[in-house]
Design brief:
The protein has 14 helices and 2 strands, in the order αααααααααββααααα. The chain is mainly alpha-helical.
């Protein structure tokens, strides 16, 4: 594993290279995208890739805590960027940064899952959700500052759709430090090496992509909800899009069925929605964050 100083030097080098290429205004991006999709213009393709390299570097740097080499993370991010440009369809109305954001994240996340030493025991969809959302879910439930008891573990497992045993195992794995990037640095040791790797402030490209992505996701969610039946839509929205999610027990009493049946309907509806959204956006088969997350509810509430 490279030392933190080597990682810092590499990241600075990659960032410097990426920043040599300016962002493209929307009209020029559209012209280049059409040149690539219609005529396979290689120069246009290269320009689209280069103008978004800083976005790839920014996203890759956020996964530095995995302990994997920063050069490898950036390489995977660039692979995701290239795949996005290859598949980008400007006629759909998306900005390339929005579309590329999904592909870059999926490529880097997949690389981390396959290579991080703690996660080499499996790569199921449930495990992906648990790996990328355990800490966020603990914060949402207000249990991030203590050792989880049996009730806490059950709440996390229910929220993320995994087993109690998997939650316990992942918590144990996360409690074991694996990366030299967390070592203290500086004269007083009041900073970690990871602090030197990336500027946590959102880049202009990422900020624009996030805002555009949010609007697109809301539109895709509206469309996806139309494929659900009335009961499916009510259960899905009550559990995933409401400010205060309705409990399984409450919905079970409302429909006169068991809590397990409500859970099955919710799970089936979620899968239908996820497939529809992926199909609409032509997204890669990467990790899908649970719709019950606080951020997702906040973003998607406007679709109702």
């Amino acid at each position: 594993m490279a030392s933190y100083t080597e990682s810092v030097d590499l990241l600075r080098s990659f960032t410097s290279q990426a920043n040599r290429f300016p962002m493209l205004p929307p009209d020029e991006e559209q012209q280049l995208a059409h040149a690539w999709t219609e005529r396979q213009d290689r120069r246009a393709f290269d320009q689209l890739v280069k103008s978004h390299m800083r976005l790839a570097v920014k996203i890759a740097a956020k996964y530095a805590r995995s302990g994997l080499p920063i050069a490898d993370l950036i390489s995977e991010a660039n692979i995701g960027l290239v795949k996005a440009v290859q598949r980008f369809d400007p006629s759909r109305g998306f900005r390339l940064s929005t579309y590329a954001l999904w592909w870059i994240r999926a490529e880097v996340q997949s690389f981390v899952l396959h290579n991080w030493s703690l996660i080499k025991g499996g790569n199921t969809a449930a495990l992906k959700r648990l790996f990328f959302n355990l800490r966020q879910t603990q914060r949402k439930l207000g249990i991030e500052d203590r050792v989880m008891n049996d009730d806490d573990v059950l709440r996390v497992a229910t929220t993320l759709g995994t087993s109690v045993e998997e939650v316990r195992e992942m918590e144990h794995r996360f409690s074991t430090p694996v990366t030299s990037l967390n070592v203290p640095v500086g004269e007083d040791g009041d900073h970690e090496a990871i602090d030197l790797l990336a500027d946590d402030r959102e880049s202009v490209e990422e900020s624009l992509a996030e805002r555009s992505e949010l609007n697109d996701r809301r539109a895709m969610m509206r469309d996806a909800l139309t494929i659900l039946g009335e009961r499916e839509r009510h259960i899905f929205a009550s559990r995933n899009l409401a400010e205060n999610p309705v409990t399984l027990e409450t919905l079970a009493q409302h429909y006169g069925v068991s809590k397990e049946r409500i859970r099955q309907i919710e799970s089936g509806a979620y899968k239908k929605v996820a497939r529809r959204v992926r199909s609409s956006a032509e997204l890669p088969a990467g990790p899908v964050p649970p719709m019950a997350s606080k951020r997702a509810r906040g973003e998607m509430r406007m679709v109702q």
